[in-house]
Amino acid sequence: MELPSEALLGTCSHCQRLLLTAILLASMATAQLDLSPKNPDWVEGYRFIWRVSGAPTGDVNYTWYRGDRTMETNMLVSYISSPPSWITGPANTGRENVTARGFLNITKVEMRDAGNYTVVVTSPEGSQEATGQSRVWENLLQPNITVNTTSAVEFMDIVNFTCYPRNSGNIQIQWYQNYWPVSQGDQWTLSPDNRTLTGWVTRFQRGPFYCQVSNPIISERSLSKSLDIYYGPDSISLKSSPPTYGGRIESRLGYGVEMVCSTSSKPASRYRWLHNGIALESTTSIYNISAMSWADVGTYRCIAENPKTQIVLYSTVSLRVYEDSHFPSGIPYVLTQRLVIFFSIGVSLGLLSLIGALTFYLVSRRYCVMLGYWGQRDWKGRTGRDKGKAILKRNPSPRVSSTMR
Ligand SMILES: *[C@@H]1O[C@H](CO)[C@@H](O)[C@H](O)[C@H]1NC(C)=O
Ligand SMILES: *[C@@H]1O[C@H](CO)[C@@H](O)[C@H](O)[C@H]1NC(C)=O
Ligand SMILES: *[C@@H]1O[C@H](CO)[C@@H](O)[C@H](O)[C@H]1NC(C)=O
Ligand SMILES: *[C@@H]1O[C@H](CO)[C@@H](O)[C@H](O)[C@H]1NC(C)=O
């Protein structure tokens, strides 16, 4: 322990004395002999070490007694510090001993060990004693568990678990499902002693289920049980190749058709197929037509049944022959529109070229006439017709010439 500095205390010697007294009292208070813990809980069959606190150090003897009185007949064991030695007393059962620090060591606690204990510590300064009281709790054995069934239909079957504790003492029983505590409610009913748990289950409550026995100190749980839970089918779907549109499959004659039915259930559904109300041979989820004929046309029904839940669902589709004449989708309409546009452009272009050709013809014809008109005029400005006349004049018939001479 550190004393306050002289500078602080030097001013007042009266204060110094008071402070020293206080420190002495405090150190005496911390040195108070005690047992730690004061009232321990022991578990049958386990080892326990009872600590001593506030004991003086150095040349110290420790003696432990049963009960709250230090009578010779109650003495368990004593430790003599010099020379180090141990003395056993008449109350010793062979399971009690003391360490060199004065701690009581009990190997394999028994139910009868519960009660008061006293330790006496002797040092050259004198002797002190401390008393404590222990409680002993039954060591718990693993409880057994049984269940009336290993499988159950969701929401339907009642399952009944029973816990068999293997301890006779005062114990509590708690049930667990998926590691969460189960409590009495809509789903589960507990017996007043919690030994039986009764209720229905859902598909998400397979387990593990177990019971746990406990006292305020320890707990022990049983082995766990799991259930097979049957459920569904909740829904059915029918897919096909070629695909189904609006409850219809269309396929060309001679082509293959496949229908696949699916459900989610436990155990797996059993399948049946009907064609126009007549049972087909297939007992799987798939129905196959390798080459479609007119005889295959009609209504198909897939029926799925869960043998455990007895829930039956079905789905229906109709198979038709695909006809080229009608378009099963909107795409050809777009094509016709395109064709219309294409043809319109073609017709317009044709008309335009026709008009163009005609115009050219007419214009060029008129131009040729004009050309002809001008071209046939000679240097004398006479037309062809005059030329002809002129030629006729240059080559006069003899008869005419003679007449002219
Ligand atoms: C107690 O412990 C000491 C030291 O471990 C040992 O020497 C002594 O024999 C023990 N006494 C009994 C009664 O078991
Ligand atoms: C411890 O016990 C021995 C034997 O009884 C005794 O001789 C010795 O004086 C004791 N020592 C103390 C410090 O009491
Ligand atoms: C409990 O299980 C144990 C084995 O773990 C067996 O020896 C005992 O007989 C069972 N007790 C009951 C009440 O079923
Ligand atoms: C039964 O279990 C409930 C919790 O589900 C618990 O509060 C109650 O103390 C238990 N009773 C017994 C006798 O185990």
Structure report:
The chain has helices at residues 6-9, 13-30, 331-375, 384-394, 398-404; strands spanning 34-36, 41-43, 48-53, 61-66, 75-80, 85-88, 96-98, 104-106, 115-123, 126-137, 144-147, 151-153, 159-164, 172-177, 180-181, 188-190, 196-199, 209-214, 219-221, 228-230, 236-241, 248-251, 257-263, 270-275, 278-279, 286-289, 298-305, 312-321. With 405 residues, the chain is an alpha+beta fold. It folds into 5 domains: 1-28, no CATH class; 31-136, Immunoglobulins (Immunoglobulin-like), CATH 2.60.40; 144-230, Immunoglobulin-like (Sandwich); 236-321, Sandwich (Immunoglobulin-like); 338-405, no CATH class. The strands form 7 sheets. Strands 2-10-9-4-5-6 form a 6-stranded mixed β-sheet, with no helix packed on it. Strands 22-28-27-24-25 form a 5-stranded mixed β-sheet, with no helix packed on it. A 4-stranded antiparallel β-sheet has the order 1-3-8-7, with no helix packed on it. The N and C termini lie far apart (182 Å). The relative contact order is 0.07. Mean pLDDT is 83; it is low at 1-12, 18-29, 330-334 and 368-405. Bound molecules: 2-acetamido-2-deoxy-beta-D-glucopyranose (4 copies). One 2-acetamido-2-deoxy-beta-D-glucopyranose (NAG) binds next to strand 6.
